[in-house]
Recover the amino acids of this structure.
């Protein structure tokens, strides 16, 4: 029996090796556009500094946050990565197993962008009516700056239509590995398929970096990433406190620097930040807030903090978010039951597929459960649902989600917006009215 | 790497109970219980006439009782209990044991089962301990797991009913004296003849069995038992494969729902990360699937509480005994 299993396993390994070799065919070329655009770079810098100013205006900020501000707005990390001798692997979304990348001595960088200014360049290649996040991220590649230029390869998962096709278009610029997500998350069928995708990815990472992913290195990287989750859980525990110790923008800054920062340094700094917050908790000088909000919906990524700025300028705090650019990215741990190669890979595959509450899967109830639970844990007064224009996934779920909160009696506000700054005043009036209503309730 | 308090406690309990059940009588304790009768074979089942493999214990046991797990009667070196309850059940049918002898043993079984259900399987059963040890040896060696395919899982779920039905049917069959004696004597305690523990535990306790193979029926049973033995040894790769169709487990599993020990799930706290499925020794998906009912006790469960131990959400799964919280799941922090 063992003999047959071995043959089967050899067959599987051969198949995976063959699949890992497969790339986009590109028999017909797609218009390729590469131009360094200094104007855009300048504009982007302006936008970031403007955002920073707005963020800095907020009262009672912890001191430790300045490190994250530096990393996210400056080019310190970029210079570090330029000096890095190993490979840098870019990725989109939350489905890329970072454990595999770390264990092959490479650095993962999440490329999802929130810059408005790169959209216009991307539109020279991409159609106009698609997701702004995709356009914005692609614009960085066209304009040839930021982290995109440093990547040796890009992992492109296929959650929604726009990201699915983005992989093929990007393959004209640099090696792209598409990570094909199953359409639903269930034990058995999709799990097996996804595990195979993870095996293929492992093979590809090994081929690119020329480092073998061994049991030892994988165990070590799982350990490090588990440490990150521990720190993050501590951070979230502190966010439950009622005079809010940190505002939502700062919390998102902390998490979003983690997308590309050096992991050990990030853990260390966040540990320190948590210590500082702990101190503040005992000092108890902060004002109590009766406008604790939960933010859910489409990703909000630096520097697109438009909505956050509007909300938090009106003496309210976002105490918890359910965004894929926030909590969802780091929250779930890899829990390995058997420290064998298969056991670890299975645990990693499970962690990235099963607990994910991305609306790209066929069921949406798990996401609602998650929002309800965090609304209860963080004692929120209201829920704000952010949906990006031309992202139908969140819009389709919106009626169900809003209905749940209506039944529960928790005020709910849905906001449709874009990366552009044109609708600021409209949003402001809506949010103002919502917050007024919240305050009158309590 | 991460501490698993429940699994650690369970391993200690399993280790201690393994030695107590197999060697307990060697400690020199003898408990005479006048209330519980010693069930004897009726006339016509005298020991000379029984074939060698059925030979009863050489030494007296501490407790002349039966409990629901594989406390093998062939642990002749010094077993703590007389036999497993499945053995008693089939023997009592065969011997047509009178109710007043049968009832006290049944009451003991029911009491233990209603209290804890299949808890006995996960924490006390010596055969379970052997399977867990084999699996942990495999993990120490760094070999990969073989997960049982869906077809086999479904097959074994049905097969356990076939097996227990067969054992009880045959026990009933030999109760009729009209059947010729040579058939009756070979069909006697067919459950034990099929049980892999009969081939393991006598060797551990130092009194090997004498297996006679001079009849077609005995050869058939012996070969089925060898298949079961192979399944048991394969548990190194498939984790608790024998428990999937163990007849004792079937008897205990009726009491899982409604026993004093309750496993509960906080429905919204569960993120459906699937860790409970991955950690389950029987690869059950029940706990993962359940999103409507708070109670997550299922008949297929052996109550090892590995799911509670490995669940990363604080308080998503909890174990209660008579309404008191015994354990709850926690996010693991490495030391």
């Amino acid at each position: 029996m063992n003999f047959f299993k071995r043959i089967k396993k050899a067959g599987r390994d051969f198949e995976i090796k063959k699949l890992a070799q497969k790339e986009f065919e590109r028999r017909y070329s797609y218009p390729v556009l590469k131009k360094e655009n200094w104007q855009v770079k300048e504009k982007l810098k302006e936008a970031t500094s403007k955002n920073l100013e707005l963020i800095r205006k907020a009262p009672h900020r912890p001191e430790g946050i300045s490190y994250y501000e530096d990393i996210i707005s400056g080019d310190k990390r970029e210079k570090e990565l330029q000096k890095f001798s190993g490979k840098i692997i870019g990725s989109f979304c939350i489905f890329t197993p970072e454990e595999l990348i770390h264990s092959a001595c490479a650095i993962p960088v999440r490329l999802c962008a929130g810059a408005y200014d790169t959209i216009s360049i991307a539109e020279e290649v991409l159609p106009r009516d698609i997701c702004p996040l995709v356009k914005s991220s692609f614009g960085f590649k066209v304009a040839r700056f930021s982290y995109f230029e440093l990547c040796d390869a890009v992992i492109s998962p296929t959650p929604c239509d726009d990201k699915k096709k983005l992989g093929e278009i990007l393959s004209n610029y640099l090696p792209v590995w598409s990570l094909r997500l199953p359409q639903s998350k269930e034990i058995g069928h999709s799990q097996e398929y996804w595990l195979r995708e993870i095996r293929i990815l492992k093979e590809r990472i090994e081929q690119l970096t020329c480092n073998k992913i061994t049991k030892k290195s994988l165990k070590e990287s799982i350990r490090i990433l588990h440490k990150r989750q521990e720190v993050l859980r501590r951070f979230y525990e502190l966010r439950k406190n009622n005079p809010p110790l940190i505002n939502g923008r700062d919390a998102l800054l902390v998490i979003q620097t983690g997308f590309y920062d050096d992991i050990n340094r990030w853990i260390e700094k966040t540990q320190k930040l948590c210590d500082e917050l702990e101190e503040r908790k005992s000092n108890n000088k902060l004002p109590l807030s009766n406008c604790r909000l939960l933010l859910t919906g489409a990703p909000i990524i630096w520097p697109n903090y438009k909505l956050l700025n509007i909300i938090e300028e009106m003496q309210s705090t976002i105490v918890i978010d359910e965004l894929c650019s926030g909590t969802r990215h780091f929250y779930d741990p890899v829990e390995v039951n058997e420290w064998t190669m298969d056991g670890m890979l299975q645990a990693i595959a499970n962690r990235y597929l099963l607990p994910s509450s991305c609306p790209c899967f066929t069921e949406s109830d798990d996401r609602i459960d998650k929002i309800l639970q965090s609304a209860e844990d963080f004692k929120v007064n209201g829920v704000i649902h952010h949906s990006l224009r031309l992202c139908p996934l969140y819009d389709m779920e919106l009626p169900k989600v809003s209905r749940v909160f209506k039944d529960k009696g928790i005020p709910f506000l849905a906001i449709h917006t874009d990366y552009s700054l044109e609708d600021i005043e409209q949003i402001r009036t809506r949010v103002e009215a919502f917050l007024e209503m919240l305050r009158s309730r309590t | 790497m991460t501490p698993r308090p429940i699994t650690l406690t369970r391993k200690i309990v399993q280790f201690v109970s393994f030695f107590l059940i197999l060697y307990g009588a060697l400690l020199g304790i003898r408990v005479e219980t006048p209330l519980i009768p010693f069930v004897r074979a009726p006339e016509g089942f005298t020991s000379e006439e029984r074939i060698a493999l059925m030979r009863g214990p050489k030494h007296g046991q501490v407790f002349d009782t039966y409990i629901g797990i594989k406390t093998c009667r062939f642990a002749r070196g010094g077993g703590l209990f007389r036999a497993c309850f499945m053995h008693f059940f089939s023997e009592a049918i065969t011997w047509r044991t009178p109710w007043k002898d049968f009832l006290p043993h049944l009451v003991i079984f029911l009491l233990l089962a209603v209290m804890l259900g299949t808890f006995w399987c996960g924490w006390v059963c010596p055969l379970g301990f052997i399977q867990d040890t084999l699996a942990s040896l495999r993990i120490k060696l760094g070999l990969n797991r073989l997960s049982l395919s869906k077809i086999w899982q479904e097959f074994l779920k049905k097969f356990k009913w076939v097996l227990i039905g067969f054992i009880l049917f045959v026990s009933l069959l030999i109760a009729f004296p009209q059947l010729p004696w040579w058939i009756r004597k070979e069909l006697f305690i067919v459950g034990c003849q099929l049980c892999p523990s009969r081939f393991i535990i006598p060797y551990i306790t130092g009194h090997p069995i004498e297996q006679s193979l001079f009849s077609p029926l005995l050869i058939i049973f012996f070969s089925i038992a060898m298949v079961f033995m192979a399944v048991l040894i394969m548990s190194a790769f498939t984790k608790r494969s024998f428990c999937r169709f163990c007849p004792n487990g079937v008897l205990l599993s009726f009491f899982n729902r409604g026993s004093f020990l309750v496993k509960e799930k906080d429905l919204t706290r569960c993120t459906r990360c699937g860790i409970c499925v991955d950690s389950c020794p029987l690869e059950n998906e029940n706990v993962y699937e359940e999103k409507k009912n708070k109670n997550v006790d299922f008949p297929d469960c052996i109550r090892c509480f590995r799911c509670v131990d490995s669940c990363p959400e604080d308080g998503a799964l909890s174990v209660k005994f008579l309404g008191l919280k015994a354990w709850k799941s926690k996010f693991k922090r490495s030391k």
About this structure: The radius of gyration of chain A is 22 Å.
